[in-house]
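Before we proceed, please read the two lines closing this message. Let me know whether the C-alpha cells fit the sequence:

…
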Amino acid sequence: MQGVRAALRQMLGPHAGIGVTDPAQDAALWDEEAAAVARAVPKRRTEFAAGRSAARAAMAEIGFAPAAIPQGRDRAPIWPVGLSGSIAHCDTCCVSVVALQEHYAVLGVDVEPATPLAPDLVAVICTPAERAWLAGESDPGLASKMIFSAKEAVYKAQYPLTGKVIGFDAVTLDMTDDTFHVVGDPTLANLKGAILIEGGLILSLAYV
C-alpha cells in the first residue's frame, strides 16, 4: 500500500490528497452514502465503503474536514463544494485522490492488475491508431491493459467537464512510457495523463 501511495504522490505532486485502503476490510459508511448500496451484494458494499474511507483519508491529507460522499443518480461521487476527486478499486487495492479545485479542476484515477488484456477485448477497447501503436510494443497484452486503465481515468475526469457518458472508442490516446494524452478531441486538449506500474498494479491518472 505504501508503494502505491508513493507512486500516486510522484504522479500528482504535493497539492492532492491520496487515500489507499484494502477493499476486503470493513469500513464505515455515512448515512448519506449507505442508500447507494442498500441492495448491493456484500462484496460491492465492502468495496464501496473502502472507497469512501480512502476518499476521507485523502481529504484529511489536504486539511479538508471529513464529509459524506453520496452517489448521484449517474452513480458518480458527489464531492463537497470546492473539491475535485476520484475513486477506483480492484480486488486488492482501493485508491482515492482529491484536491481543491483551484489546484485540480478535475481528477480521474484508475487501478488495475498489471496483467494482459484479454485478446478478444483489444478491438473493443483500442481504436485503430492505438492498435497500430500496440503492434510495436514488446508486450502488447500488457500495453493494451494500460490503454484500458488510462481510458478509465480519462472517462472519470472528462465527465464533470462534458456531462457525457462515452464509450472506449470515443477517444484515442497517445501513450508514452509514463504519460498519455487525448488526441483528436479539442474539448479534452487540456487533459493530462500519467501512468505507471507499481506493486503489480497499473495506476492511471487524468487531470486538468
